[in-house]
Amino acid sequence: MQVEINSVWDVSNIDGLSDGLYRLLASYKEDGVLILFDLAESISLKKPISVDFEVFLSGVEKKDIKPSSFTLPFYLLLSDGDIPSEYIKRRDDQFELIEGLVNKPYFLFEVAVIQRCKIIPAHAKSKGTYVQKLYRILNQYWRYGQDVNGLLPAYKNSGGPGEPRLAGLKKRGAPMQLSTPGMITASGKNATEEDKQKFLKAIKKYALKGRSMAISHIYKKMLNEFYADEILQAEKDARSPLVPSLRSFRYWVKKLIPESEFIKKSTSSGDFDRNKRGLRGSTTDHAEVPGSYFELDATVLDVHIVSEFNRNHVIGRPTLYYVIDKVSRMIVGLHVSMEYASWKAGRQALVNSFSSKKYFCARYGIEIEDEDWPCRHIPQRLLCDRGEFICKDAEERAVPLIGHLSFAPPYRAEKKGVVEHRFHILNENLIHDLMGTTRGTNYIRGDKDPRMDAVFTLKEVTQMIIEDVLVQNSKALDALASQTTLLIESQLSPTPLNYWNVYLNKHLHALSKADEAEIRAKLLPVEYVSMTSKGIRLNDDMYYECDRPEFEDWKTIARNYGRSKMEALIDSDNSSFIFVRLQPLEGFTRCKLMKRSSIFEERHKADVLYFKDWKKLEQGKPQVSTRTVEAHARRKSIVEAAKQEVNELPKLGKKSDKIKGMKDRRREYVSNARVEEKIDHDDYLTSADDSISRISEERKEKVISILKRKKDSDK
Q: Which positions are tagged coiled coil (predicted)?
């Protein structure tokens, strides 16, 4: 154990020394003595204490003496350039008085060992000062590490800082300044101890109740409750009431209530944890590499959309799910739908996150390569909301695939700070500039209804969000620059895409992969479809087919023996395909939409539901119109006329007379019809010939003869 000059030790259970902190001033090994100085606060002057060297070392071995530390006051830690010149002069003057003593080799030994040391009184006499002054300077010098700056004046202690003072009769504070002569201001009142107690009662009653309230409002409530008698009496006496001012109230509130406590108790615990508490670390403190942590969250977009089948029909505001890698800030997946935030919509976001983005973007007319959005991986952990994922389905389906689910506490959005910030960026960059946006504010009476401006479909909004995601993944972020040196070594810009790629290329990640069919089988719920003679039917109007050679045979069997049920996995984002278990002992096969159902190609489930609802409404309407009513009336009159004519005819002797000779009458009817048709045709030709002759005569009258040029043979 090294025993160093000016080191500080915590001493306990040592004979001749009281427990506490001591500074080691000197070591006289040849005499076997150490010189210590007690650092305990005291108004009395102290002398150094001598301790046997072996006793000290024995105390160190027994842990009765331990190394410790002593914090110097802040004003002793300044450089000479920051110290006022008058302070330096005072320091140097005091050091000049003791310089001759502290520079003597055995000065500390003599002062500590000799009971009545004559060296300090003699030095005081030579300097023309008194002994107590020298001891006061030496105590300060020894206490602060035998450094000349330890003699700097401690003006920080001047005036008794932090100590309460009793208010006098004279009004404290600057008086109100008035520009108009002759106007008299109220004298005011100093806050007494009784007033301070009332201040505390008012603050505890009105402010520290978990809700925010303005100081001025609390002040008014306090006057009405605790100073009502004085205010009423002052009004009777026609004078200003002697009550503390608002300025005095503000001052004493800060003095009497710790600011941190005032902030904490003036709001709810959730709001304090989200928006007002001190931050403890970075969002990436517990996530080391890409894939360590994915964050999933949903928000209702601040824009109204219309149906893709009819742009005049507003269908509401869609829900957006983002899945973001916590370390790299990479947006690894998204899902936009008309579903509310739920496990049903959340699992679609996970399917998108774990699948290739090239085909996903191609559906929306955006051509990319896999390198432009290389996210088709499963993370080690997933942080999500309790509402969507605390359910049996999530535990049975997501946990075996991902491994570990973490749930953010309720009303603690800051626990998912990365994804929440991405929503904010999306609103600023895109959503709040679209037609039909609510701009994140409530509707105010008199403002234009944003639903009247809605023009975009769900597919168009999704397309614009994808474009923004590609931009954000390639945007440089300052936070990423300080997270790793790999970007600097690789000379890459600190973008989420570069961060993701550089860690994957060096195999520094916690990501895994799975087949698309496996992902869908584990995440999507099993629904039932029917094999019919027309194909695999879903929702009565959507038919699918596959490339299996026996598919036509299955349709034939269904036509003759009835349809059969099959298990299917439905992707609500895209109706162009489904995964069907075609045989009981097989996996799921991808089936594509048939041509007869092409109107549902690339349609979202929201559009399919809109079509079904529209169809129900149309079928529910009364199937009559003006035309049907008129046709019914005409048919009824024809029937009545026919019945009347039949009744006017002479009655037949037998029923068989009505059908007797039916074939002969049919031939006669056909013959007469042909004669009539020929007559009508001849009349038409005659009238046509007359029209042609008339037109020819009219043309002849209009023809002008032109002299013909003689030919060469006529010459």
A: none
